[in-house]
Structures are given as structure tokens and as C-alpha cells.
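User: Quick sanity check before I run a bigger batch. Here is a single chain. Can you write out its predicted 3D structure?
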Amino acid sequence: MDFTFPCDQEVVKQLLPHRDPFLWVTRILECEPGVSIVAELDVDPDLPLFKGHFPDYPVFPGVLIMEALAQAASCCLLAQDDKAGSLGFFAGIDKAKFREQVRPGDTIRLEATITRNSSRMCVADVVAYKGDKVCAQATQKYVMARA
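Assistant: Done. Predicted structure follows.
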């Protein structure tokens, strides 16, 4: 398949198997398939998770920022013809750091650079930004498998 970037969430849904309430990529701004991606997530203030995390001071969970970064990196990988239709499963998260809180209504920029791209194992250096501030970063590993 040929994908054109930038794109909205309808194209994201063609790349990823994820759906609401667990789709964490709103749009893709730039993508060089198999190499790098810049995407965004609009953090919906009406997400039910904010009722419990935390009721008096809602914060988007760091684990979901990591998931959003993995979904963005997976879009980059799945845009390649040889990986289309695969599923990416976490194999590891190394050097994870959380630096800036993400609050309801924020938009975070999700950037991934693929550093290893083999038939089964892929590795990406990922960074999430709110404006020019780093929210989270890590090296993520994924096992690619056919559905």
C-alpha cells in the first residue's frame, strides 16, 4: 500500500490494528517508512481515565505516553510493504525517562527514529514533546509478528 503523509487518523487506522479506546495517534505529520516518524496525540479532556488519575489533578499516565510512542513507531514500520499487516508487540523499554506532565487538552508530538529494522525485531529511539519540552523518552524494542 502507498500512504501519503501528512495524514489524519483514518490513515492511522489503516496502518494500526488499534481502535478506540486504545488508539493513541491522532495524526501523522511526517513519515519516512522504516526510518522515522513525527506524529501527534491530542489528549482528550473527556477521557474516562482522568476520573481516577487523578481526580483533583488529572495527568495523562506515563505508560500511555510510552504506548503512544510505540504506536507512532509502529505506524512508521507498518508503512513499509514488507511489514504491512503485522502486529508489533513490546519486547522491551530501556532508558525510559519522564520529564514533563501531560494534562487534559495538551497535544504531544511523538517522534521515533528506527535504529534496528529486521524481519522480527525492531528498535526505536522515541521522544514525546509538549511544545519544546521533552515529556518522555526511551529506547523501545518490538517483535513484529503476522496476525
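The helical segments are 9-15, 62-78.

User: Great, the batch can go ahead then.
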